[in-house]
Every structure is written in structure tokens, then in C-alpha cells.
Amino acid sequence: MLRECQLKQKWPCLLGQDMLGLQYSIHRPSSFINCHRTDLLPDWQFPVSSLMLVLQPSTVALNKLTPDTEQQKQLLRRRFLHLSKRLIVHLKNEGYAAERFDPKTGQPYYSRAGSLRLDDVAVVHSMLGYRLIPCGDCRLIEHPVWGCGVFPAVVVSTAPPGALAAIADRVWHGYKTTAS
Ligand code: B12
Known about the structure:
The protein is α+β, with helices and mostly antiparallel strands. The protein has one domain. It contains 6 helices and 7 strands; from the N terminus they run αββααβαβαβββα. The strands form 2 sheets. The chain has a 5-stranded antiparallel beta sheet, with helices on both faces. Strands 5-6 form a two-stranded antiparallel ribbon. The longest helix is centred in the middle third of the chain and has 27 residues, at 67-93. It is globular and about 40 Å long. It starts with a helix and ends in an 8-residue tail after the last helix. Residues 1-10 and 176-180 have low confidence and may be disordered. It binds cobalamin (B12). The site of cobalamin has 29 residues, from helix 4, helix 5, strand 6 and strand 7. Cobalamin (B12) binds at residues 30, 32, 62-63, 65, 69, 73, 103, 105-106, 116-123, 126, 135-138, 140-141, 148, 150-152.
């Protein structure tokens, strides 16, 4: 089920996965990611060729620190780890390197952490242009529909964007998450 933008290899390409209740988009890495790859992923030998943004709606606005926001963040983190694991296994089976950044810390999940953690909000802002909102000592991203009730996360790979899109489509299409 390749979308027009995929067919035309136009990146970024906003793809939705309604069944999984998330949005994901696929991009070429930004200059920041290319310039700081060794700070972010010191053990990676090859350049990052593609980056996937995974956005999940939160049932509560995340601009507060309450038991509900913390519970929601934990649930959405677990869900991202569950869904992205499948994707990364398939990418590796096809010979590509892949990594996901822990949305809680900004550090790589499988490989050794570097001197820089990935700022998911800065990545979403630079890739999709969504608004940045200062909040206490932190910064939030504002989704055009979900507002600040959005939970961002990032996957990177040596796979070209087209291959990542095709594998994500295959892995996630019709897949019903059991992690709830
Ligand atoms: C560290 C952090 C905090 C710190 C503060 C940030 C700080 N000053 O370091 C603390 C613990 C205070 C915090 C608090 C909160 N946080 Co906070 N925080 C994070 C975390 C883990 C990292 C953000 C970060 O790296 N900031 C570093 C910035 C502030 O540094 P900087 O020098 O200004 O900029 C550098 C970076 O941007 C860096 N960089 C790194 N990667 C990249 C990539 C690109 C493309 C660019 C351009 C730059 C860049 O380069 C810049 C120059 O060196 C993210 C999760 C993540 N993985 O991104 C969550 C996150 C941003 N926080 C979040 C939230 C919701 C909060 C809270 C508002 C509420 C809550 N329920 O937790 C509270 C605020 C409470 C309050 N009232 O103060 C959410 C935001 C969700 C959303 N809708 O956007 C996130 C995404 C976590 C999550 N997944 O839910 N947070």
C-alpha cells in the first residue's frame, strides 16, 4: 500500500497507521544528525540513511507533571518499544543497521550511548516544523491535531528511506498491537 509520496520517493513522507493509532513519517537525516552521528551513536560504522519519526497521541496533555501524565508516558514508551522492536528485527534481517532512541532518555537502546542524547522534540521540530512550546525547564512539541498530547520517538537506520518505508508498511500494516 505504497502512498504517492513513497512512489515518487518524495521525503519527508507522512504516513499514518490508524490501526495502531500512531503517525509515522520517514525522512532523510538532518544535517544535525549527520554532523553529530558519532556523538549520538559512537559505535555506528555507517552513516544514518533514514530516520523515522513515530508520534503517538496521549490521552492527557503532557504539559503537566501528574500521575496521569507519568502513567501515559510509561504506557506510550512501552508501546513504542514493542512496535519498533518488530521493525528493527525486520530491518536487521534485511541486512540494515537500525537503532531506536529511548524516548525517556534520548539514548540509543541497543548500542552504546554517546556524549549527546537525542532531543526528540528538536528532531520533530526540524523535520515536520511543528511548534516548540517552552514548559518549565523542558520544551514540548505541539501536534497540529493532538496539541501537546503527543509522545514523540525516533528510529534511525542505514536503510534508504524507500526501503524503510516498505519494511514499515509490511511490518505494521494490519498488525494489531497487543501492548495496551
Ligand atoms: C531532559 C528532559 C527534561 C528535563 C529538562 C530538559 C533540559 N533542560 O535538559 C526535565 C527533567 C526538567 C524535563 C521535564 C519535563 N519534560 Co522533558 N524531556 C527531557 C528529554 C529526556 C531530553 C530533552 C533534551 O535533550 N533536552 C536538551 C535541550 C533542552 O538542550 P539544549 O541545549 O537546549 O539543545 C540541545 C539539544 O536540542 C541538542 N540536540 C540533541 N538532539 C538534537 C536533534 C536536533 C535535530 C537538533 C536541532 C538539536 C539536538 O542540540 C542542542 C544544542 O546542544 C526529552 C525526551 C527526548 N528523548 O527528547 C523529554 C521530553 C521533551 N519532556 C517531555 C515532557 C512532557 C516534560 C514535562 C513538560 C512534563 C512531564 N510530564 O514530564 C516536564 C516539565 C516539568 C516542568 N514543569 O518543569 C516530553 C515532551 C512531549 C511533547 N509533547 O513534546 C518529552 C519528549 C518526553 C516524552 N517522550 O514524553 N524534561
